[in-house]
Amino acid sequence: MKKQTSRLTIIALAVALNIVLGNLALFLRLPIYLDTVGTILAATLLGPVAGIITGLCSAIFTGVTSDLFSLYFAPVQLCVGLMAGILLHNKRTAWSLPLKALLVTLPGTLVASLITVLLFGGITSSGSSMLVQVLHGLGLNQTLSVFLVQIGTDYLDKFLAISIVISAIKALPRYRQIVS
Fold first, then answer.
1. Distance in angstroms between the alpha carbons of the first and the last residue of the chain
2. What percent of the chain has pLDDT over 70?
3. What is the per-residue DSSP string for 88-146?
4. Banded model confidence at residue 42, pLDDT cuts 50, 70, 90
5. Which domains does the chain have, with CATH numbers?
6. Cα separations (Å) of 96 from 36, 101, 121?
7. SS3 of 35-86
8. How far apart are CA 156 and CA 118, in angstroms?
9. 133-158 tens-digit pLDDT
């Protein structure tokens, strides 16, 4: 029972972290999102299923309360939770942080690019839409244009999120007692 309570507490904390950091990034108009730090934290500590649950709960809560568009992009949170859980939980791979960040980023960026093109015609509220239109105007496919622009900000976002999570876990060496 204590283990289940600890897991639910970590997931709830991770959801709150996603919501607070995501809204902070929106408010400050940062070129990154910070809305997956909690998803990556839960996935790293508890595995892919916890990452997926955290991401889905975060997207639903944010979509209902403050940013409707996060509902459309919920599949991105699912991709991030899955990939972070696979690559970071129990440190199954010895790959470098930049490579792990890239592998966590790529599936979500592909999904986000498809959502942006199919549902929003390649235009979003971010300032990067202008660059997407320039690339598209130069003859690139619109999906590829969105993907190329988005991969930069997504990679930076996930690299920073993974760095924060790894640093936090290293600062709390007794976390294994909580989740075990």
1. 12
2. 92
3. HGGG-----HHHHHHHHHHHHHHHHHHHHHHHHTT--SSTTHHHHHHHHHTT--HHHHH
4. very high
5. 2-179 (1.10.1760.20)
6. 20, 9, 36
7. CCHHHHHHHHHHCHHHHHHHHHHHHHHHHHHCCCHHHHCHHHHHHHHHHHHH
8. 24
9. 888 889 999 999 999 999 999 999 99
